Amino acid sequence: MGAWGAGPFENDGAADLAGDIDEGRFSFTAIETEFEDESYLEVDGGQWVLALAEIVVSSREGRELPVPGDFSAFVAGLSPERIAWIHHHCRRRPNIGRFRRVKSERLRAV
User: Among 20, 58, 80, 85, which is disulfide-ready with 63 (CB 3.0 to 4.6 Å)?
Assistant: First the structure.
């Protein structure tokens, strides 16, 4: 049975992504195909980009995440281009709503 909720990690896709990052198995290359079509985004892609944004923002603001793991090295290793990529994909989906706008504004501020 899947996990679903309103928070950025209250779904299986985002929780798995956080685990992959924590264990050093995450690769942007592995998920980029989900974002090739600018007119459509599958559920997995939406879950992943919101989780990535939350990891970056929380790490830079010094807040703990509701999932186990140390993400500081991952965030420190992100290039400005990768931060811009996350920011872009958070902003491009109007159906993500208020949460997307808040995370996007906070990402832009860091």
Answer: 58
